[in-house]
Amino acid sequence: MEHLKTHIRHTLSKGDREIIIEGPVAPEPLRSFQMHSELDAFRRPKDQHEALIEIAALPEGRIIIAREQDTIVGYVTFHYPDEMERWSQGNMPDLIELGAIEVANDYRSLGLGSKMIRTAFEQEQMERYIVFTTEYYWHWDLKSSGLSVWDYRKMMERLMKTVDMVWYATDDPEICSHPANCLMVRIGKNVPLESEEQFDRIRFQQRFMY
User: Fold this and answer.
1) Residue 50: helix, strand or coil by DSSP?
2) Apex CA 132: angle with CA 126 and CA 136, to 5°?
């Protein structure tokens, strides 16, 4: 499958701050930037920077960033699901995971999360994909946000709904392990019916005998 990537760039001015939202960003430009020290939700900023570069080099990989000058202050990743997870079953070429979204604490009041996600979906780049995200409460920054589990869940739902991602049911054990966890999905308008049916078979795998 050919993965079409159209680079899009927006400028956001907030007072004396000028923030660039752009992507998909290629590996070489990513190397010229540095990570904000607060981008440490998943691993150390330097290690996460290397991970972003690796994802950007994947044929299907997409990295959308928000940056102030040469410092990355937020990012969103898109890639094929991890081979250790059920979502990789069937090796679907048109199933893409919105894997991570992170914004540095000092920039969280600017709406960068929704702006980065919307940028990824501009110019119908994602209409040939089923895009999904798995939301697990143990990945959420409850401490810094000051939100309860349920308020954080509502915030994430609102964020994903900016690109028309909606809640989907599943019997995946990790998602079912806590009621705040959820699966959110957007099916592009050019996705064939057989891909939708295959995704349904991946979502539900429990078999009951009567």
Assistant:
1) helix
2) 145
The Cα 149–Cα 157 span in angstroms is 12
Is residue 210 over pLDDT 50? Answer: no
Q: What is the pLDDT of residue 192?
A: 98
Dump pLDDT digits (tens) for 25-71.
999 999 999 999 999 988 999 999 999 999 999 999 999 999 999 99
Nearest partner of 191 among 94, 61, 118, judged by Cα = 94
Torsion angle in degrees (nearest 10) through CA of 83, 86, 92, 97: -80
At 27 the three-state DSSP class reads helix
Distance CA 166, CA 175 (A): 15
Output the pTM of the full model: 0.92
> Which DSSP state fits 204?
-
CA 87, CA 137: separation in Å to the nearest integer? Answer: 19
Strands 8-14 vs 34-35: parallel, antiparallel or unpaired: unpaired
* Pairing verdict, β 182-187 and 95-103: unpaired
Q: What number of CA atoms fall less than 13 Å from residue 199's CA on the CB side? A: 25
